[in-house]
């Protein structure tokens, strides 16, 4: 009975395979020879099994076409056999390779899935043939003129003049190494070889000699159980030791005691999940009176809670010299404790960074307005940096933060990221509470309610803005962004940015015009140059003509425009305006960027360019990866090379 139930659950393709197996069993039971070609009973069974398999395979390949309208001949194993190679390449056998086909192999049935694969291949070939015939028919119907080739050549020359990246030639073609033996090898092998070569050039390969600093760090971590004190070592060394200890799973209570010894001015831990609250409180009782200036903790939910706040509040006010407080994952820090913590440290505190603290609420915003307002008479306590990410604040609390007092008047860096209540009104009120010219960096990423109106608020208050991060704002339009970076009378000049992040916005809205205007605004010597410039930013302008109007001391440094509709024109503009400043570029999932655009950019930008992200760019081939001008020098890291061979079908 159980076997009948299992057979009822089989798919039609599996039922066809079972039918073939049962027929073969019948043949063996009857004593027939499976290789006997003249056996009528054997041939009848084969025909019957083949009919069932082809019927089911047709349904699997084209479920939208009725069976009556679909006819298929016998399957060819040479076309549809499943290969065990990584990319499905068929390995031809020596049999029948001399120009003839093995008839026995052609008559052998190869299964319903192989038939379905053959039908898919045949459908794809038919589609390509139709497209080819259509193109040929259009060419035949055109009227030809003797000067057509001259006009096409003139048009091509004009395009090359307007787009200098079209003139870029890969080093593989310049040196004639396009037909080397590695081109016929497996693509994964070539990618692995390229990856190891890149690591070797950057000094990170397995055969490279590690630096003396890295050798010392590794030796200390391997023997950290025997280390009692680090002495007067630099803060960067303690951070490197902490990162290495976390990577090897050795960041425990004993390691914390060594890193948090007396005399440190900055307590920075990348992961303090193994530190208890009692141990942390005992440490800060000693460190704060000894001159601790900053507490920077990641994954501090276990060690930083009400007990830690009570320890800090219980100290004398003149002993507390904290100027920076950064807490990530403090799930024990309640909304009742945070006001007391801010009140105890507000005399010297100038930087607050809270990430993923789920219990923070309106009392935190009230405490900011109460302790940092100018009305209290102490001009020394001014908040310079406020960073809030993934904090469950309500809109009323955020409005209070900007409208109740002038506590944010001196803020230079503002971060409101992944907060559901943040909208255009909240941002406008908070920015209006900041003195004009004070704000230098703003991050409003991952706030789905923000629209084009937020750009107007930023333009009016961010005259000295240097960092703009608007990642994930899907409601921004291209028109608003172009207006934001365009000099307009009666409005402050566009910001001269050093960091621009417009990643994961609407694909069609982040285009070449937006990037070109942003790059131009960040690199002009003065507003007068931008206003009086007769060169209009358009797709027909050669970016190299702007070089005389820009200054080499300015320009974008970090650019993230992944997931946009930009093309090689943006690469040309970045190469012209950010030649001496660009250090990192992210063009992931930008299908319009080609080998020539990136190759031209690398050839024009100076050696400070250290990283290019190309995740999702399946169109990038070996012409750029193995042919850009710095492929043998090192110092330039290409992040996100695809495992799938470019030009083929890729899994996205």
Mean pLDDT: 80
By DSSP, the count of extended strands is: 13
How many helix segments? 25
Q: Specify the helix fraction band.
A: 40-55%
What structural category characterises the helix and strand content?
alpha/beta
Low-confidence stretches: 1-14, 16-21, 27-35, 70-108, 530-537, 644-652
Main sheet record: 13 strands, parallel
Strand content: 5-15%
Q: Report how far the terminal alpha carbons are from each other.
A: 44 Å
The Cα radius of gyration reads 33 Å
Largest sheet, spatial ordering of strands: 1-2-3-4-5-6-7-8-9-10-11-12-13
Based on Cα principal axes, name the global outline: globular
Structure description:
- This protein is an alpha/beta fold.
- It is 40% helix and 8% strand.
- The chain is built from 25 helices and 13 strands.
- It has a 13-stranded parallel β-sheet.
- The model is unreliable at 1-14, 16-21, 27-35, 70-108, 530-537 and 644-652 (pLDDT under 50).
Search tags:
single chain, alpha/beta, 13-stranded parallel β-sheet, 40% helix, globular, disordered N terminus, disordered C terminus
């Amino acid at each position: 009975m159980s076997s009948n139930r299992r057979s009822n659950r089989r798919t039609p393709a599996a039922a066809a395979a079972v039918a073939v197996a049962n027929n073969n069993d019948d043949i063996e039971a009857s004593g027939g020879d499976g290789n006997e070609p003249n056996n009528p009973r054997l041939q009848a069974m084969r025909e019957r099994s083949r009919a069932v398999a082809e019927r089911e395979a047709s349904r699997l390949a084209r479920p939208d076409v009725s069976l009556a309208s679909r006819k298929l001949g016998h399957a060819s194993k040479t076309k549809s056999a499943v290969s065990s190679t990584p990319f499905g390449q068929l390995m031809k056998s020596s049999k029948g390779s001399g120009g003839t086909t093995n008839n026995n192999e052609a008559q052998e049935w190869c299964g319903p899935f192989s038939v379905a694969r053959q039908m898919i291949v045949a459908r794809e070939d038919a589609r390509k043939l139709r497209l080819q015939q259509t193109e040929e028919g259009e060419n035949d119907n055109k009227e030809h003129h003797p000067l057509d080739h001259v006009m096409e050549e003139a048009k091509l020359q004009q395009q090359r003049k307007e787009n200098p990246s079209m003139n870029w030639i890969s080093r593989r073609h310049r040196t004639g190494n396009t037909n080397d033996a590695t081109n016929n090898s497996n693509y994964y092998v070539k990618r692995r070889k390229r990856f190891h070569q890149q690591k070797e050039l950057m000094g990170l390969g397995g055969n490279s000699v590690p630096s003396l600093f890295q050798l010392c760090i590794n030796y200390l971590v391997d023997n950290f159980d025997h280390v009692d004190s680090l002495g007067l070592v630099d803060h960067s060394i303690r951070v490197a030791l902490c990162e290495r200890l976390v990577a090897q799973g050795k960041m425990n209570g004993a390691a914390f005691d060594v890193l948090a010894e007396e005399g440190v001015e900055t307590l920075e831990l990348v992961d303090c999940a193994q530190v208890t609250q009692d141990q942390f409180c005992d440490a800060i009782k000693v460190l704060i009176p000894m001159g601790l200036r900053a507490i920077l903790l990641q994954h501090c939910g276990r060690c930083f809670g009400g007990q830690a706040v009570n320890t800090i509040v219980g100290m004398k006010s003149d002993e507390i010299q904290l100027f920076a407080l950064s807490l990530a994952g403090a799930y024990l820090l309640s909304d009742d404790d945070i006001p007391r913590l801010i009140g105890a440290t507000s005399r010297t505190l100038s930087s607050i960074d809270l990430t993923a603290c789920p219990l923070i609420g309106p009392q935190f915003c009230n405490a900011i307005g109460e302790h940092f307002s100018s009305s209290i008479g102490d001009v020394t306590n001014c908040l310079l940096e406020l960073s809030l990410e993934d904090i469950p604040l309500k809109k009323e609390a955020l409005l209070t933060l900007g409208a109740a007092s002038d506590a944010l008047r001196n803020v230079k860096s503002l971060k409101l990221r992944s907060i559901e209540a943040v909208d255009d009104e909240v941002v406008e009120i908070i920015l209006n509470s900041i003195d004009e010219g004070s704000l230098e960096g703003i991050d409003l990423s991952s706030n789905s309610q923000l629209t084009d109106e937020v750009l107007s608020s930023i333009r009016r208050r961010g005259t000295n803005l240097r960092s703009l991060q608007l990642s994930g704002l899907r409601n921004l339009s291209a028109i608003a962004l172009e207006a934001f970076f365009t000099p307009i009378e009666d409005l402050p000049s566009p910001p001269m940015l050093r960091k621009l992040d417009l990643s994961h916005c609407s694909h069609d809205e982040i285009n070449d015009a937006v990037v070109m205007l942003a790059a131009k605004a960040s690199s002009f010597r003065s507003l007068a140059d931008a206003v009086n410039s007769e060169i209009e930013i358009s797709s027909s302008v050669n970016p190299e003509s702007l070089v005389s109007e820009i200054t080499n001391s300015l320009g974008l440094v970090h650019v993230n425009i992944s997931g946009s509709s930009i093309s090689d024109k943006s690469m040309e503009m970045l190469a012209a305006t950010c030649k001496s400043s660009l250090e990192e570029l992210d063009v992931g999932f930008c299908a319009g960027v080609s080998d020539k655009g990136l190759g031209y950019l690398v050839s024009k930008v100076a050696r400070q360019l250290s990283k290019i992200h190309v995740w999702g760019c399946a169109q990038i081939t070996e012409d750029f990866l193995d042919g850009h001008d710095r492929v043998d020098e090192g110092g330039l890291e290409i992040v996100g090379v695809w495992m799938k061979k470019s030009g083929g079908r890729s899994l996205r």
